[in-house]
Amino acid sequence: MIFIKSTDTDFNENFQELLGRGKMDIAYVSSIVGGIIDEIKANKNKALFEHIAKFDNWTPKNDDDLKISQESMSKAYDNLDKALKDSLHLAYERIKLYHEKQKPKSWFDTEANGTILGQKVTPVDSAGLYIPGGKAAYPSSLLMNVIPAQVAGVENIVVCTPTPDNEPNELLLAACHLCGVDQVYKVGGASAIAAMAYGTQNIPKVDVVTGPGNIFVATAKKMVFGDVNIDMIAGPSEIGILADDSANPSHMAIDLLSQAEHDEMASSILITPSQKLADAVEKEIENWLQKLPREAIARKSIEERGAIIVTKDMDAAVSLMNEIAPEHLEVATMSPFELLPYIKHAGAIFLGHNTPEAIGDYVAGPNHTLPTGGTAKFYSPLGVEDFMKKSSIISFSSAAINEIGEECALIANTEGLTAHEQSVRVRLTK
Amino acid sequence: MIFIKSTDTDFNENFQELLGRGKMDIAYVSSIVGGIIDEIKANKNKALFEHIAKFDNWTPKNDDDLKISQESMSKAYDNLDKALKDSLHLAYERIKLYHEKQKPKSWFDTEANGTILGQKVTPVDSAGLYIPGGKAAYPSSLLMNVIPAQVAGVENIVVCTPTPDNEPNELLLAACHLCGVDQVYKVGGASAIAAMAYGTQNIPKVDVVTGPGNIFVATAKKMVFGDVNIDMIAGPSEIGILADDSANPSHMAIDLLSQAEHDEMASSILITPSQKLADAVEKEIENWLQKLPREAIARKSIEERGAIIVTKDMDAAVSLMNEIAPEHLEVATMSPFELLPYIKHAGAIFLGHNTPEAIGDYVAGPNHTLPTGGTAKFYSPLGVEDFMKKSSIISFSSAAINEIGEECALIANTEGLTAHEQSVRVRLTK
């Protein structure tokens, strides 16, 4: 963990290093991933079978064997402990409610001369959701990808997830049943992304591919982008916290560790004008670490990629945080909404002392798939709009084209496009 | 030009070939473009100077020489013919008005237990717009890229455009002045995309890169995607027309040719249930072709990539058009709005006999940067949202976290993430 002050002479150097967090060097996996994609495009399920044998240690008997049966999903759901089942239903309902509010509407406007202009918003026909599998299979990831696609109105939702040793994760199966997903394929990694982007004998080609994954999955998503749309290219998880003396040091420490426990590459950064808080949080981190089952991962992450930065005031803290543009940002201050106007870049903003980041991972409602590594400067959280697209609507009356057709024809002519010009002129009647 | 009937026995084969239109094989330029990007990242302006010498046939004297002076833009504007100046102002105002209507708003909602959930929408800090230059420099492209960025509220707008022989296109300069753009650099191709994505001595690194271009530009955009956001990967222009007997064959012919004149690779497809209309349009195309200054390009395009398809009824025509998902779609029928609900995929939809596609290229208001090659199945027109991004807003009260914290902690525990669990539990007071 590094402790730096924004007034240190070598601050900029240290801070620039922090900004480099989460940058993925995809160059070294590009040729491998490119090869995998080419194999799937050429040989479809035959290539999938080979990749599954190699990476997941089992061999499908036939095409149907790639698909998880609805019976096994329904059985996994029935086997859920009641409290967990209720909690997942609560999560499902709250996530659905939030995403329904974010659904864009078609709109149009009219002009007195008979013009109609607008935008028609429609769902994509089909979406492919990648959900990591095996031990790190998170049912919450399934909910967070399926629900926006369902709210968008996507007719055809396909899920791919790796099943090492042909042993599907029961929690994930249960979540599939809960969400009403029925096309789930036991395929992982770059192969799964290619299968959904280009289609195989029984995995349908989709229009949009979303979902988290390792560097191979991220690279494959970048490579198929253009042939399909994708949500974003995401890296290791991060949390940034802006806090003042009103914050509870123990809470700040466990919040930082809640990212650190994800992944040794995760980064957790506290920025505060309070030296007192900084010192107290450092102590609390050590106290908490010893109590965590995932201590080894969390310790490595916090030691190598954790940081506490003390600034001269809160303005300076906010300004640094905007440069970091963290995936998750907690604002643990006395009056957090006062800072909101000044926060420019963050995937999700958690305001106040009762809003730990983890509440947003599961049940709050907003999506937990968020831009990482500073890409919150230009990417948005996964949402309903990722599964929809727009068409411009233009309708001119005879009066309307007479009113502005001449200007249109002149610009077309100036650009040397006379067929454009003529296509307008033939409609002019005045 | 191919003439096919949807009832022909070999129809599917012919139609599949049509669907392959506009697919760009970027594999063969990838290594060249990758090399160009690496050079710009490593050597910045030094590499730019070399690329400009090679591709644009002049050598900048120094860094400042890359930038177009505001004086030259203002002079170009002053030199505009009055009618053209007024037409460009009309276009600017109408495009601005339309895009203002499309600007998304931040929103939030509250719950009785003190929860606040919402979404904050903010502009990106900086945008880089690529505008093709030389003879094919279109001032309309500048307007269509600059205005959505301005409406979004982007503070830092950078334009790159190639200037062969160091001779900027005067129309483009005038349009820059009209739009109030002041950072315009004489850099083209993949080099320009890389310069804006990674920054050089004087070209600022941006967050979003948009704009049309050839296959090198498109490939560069795909390669920098992830380090910056991009709008879409676009190919040759297209028009699809759905028409019935109420359509004027001469109008249909010139509308088809208005795409064909763009580019030999452009494609123009009429689908109609009327054999009579199909025959008449064919004759009118030949009549018009002989009158076009760009006859050679238009003829090659229409012969090699034009198509007239006759279907058994309008439903079949709409269904085929949805498979094509054209960039521009004209609906030239008696009651075009009756078909609107059934049109699923198109970049822009032009409804009725008085709405030629060209009106949307210049003055109607909606953006003319649209998804091509069937990508309207998942991409949207360029818009204000391409220059903005969202942050989720989450604020819980003590009552709120007490209400659903237990469920959250249980799911976190089930996923094996106990720091997540604890970060919620420490806030529970009931």
UniProtKB/TrEMBL annotation, chains A, B:
Its cofactor is Zn(2+). GO terms for molecular function: histidinol dehydrogenase activity; NAD binding; zinc ion binding. Keywords: Amino-acid biosynthesis, Histidine biosynthesis, Metal-binding, NAD, Oxidoreductase, Zinc. Pathway: Amino-acid biosynthesis; L-histidine biosynthesis; L-histidine from 5-phospho-alpha-D-ribose 1-diphosphate: step 9/9. Zn(2+) binds at Q259, H262, D361, H420. Substrate binds at S237, Q259, H262, H328, D361, E415, H420. It catalyses: L-histidinol + 2 NAD(+) + H2O = L-histidine + 2 NADH + 3 H(+). Binds 1 zinc ion per subunit. GO terms for cellular component: cytosol. It holds the Pfam family Histidinol_dh. One of its GO terms (biological process) is L-histidine biosynthetic process. Its EC number is 1.1.1.23. InterPro entries: Ald_DH/histidinol_DH, Histidinol_DH_monofunct, Hstdl_DH. The active site is at E327, H328. CDD domains: Histidinol_dh (cd06572). Belongs to the histidinol dehydrogenase family. NCBIfam families: hisD (TIGR00069). Catalyzes the sequential NAD-dependent oxidations of L-histidinol to L-histidinaldehyde and then to L-histidine. This is Histidinol dehydrogenase. It comes from Sulfurimonas paralvinellae.
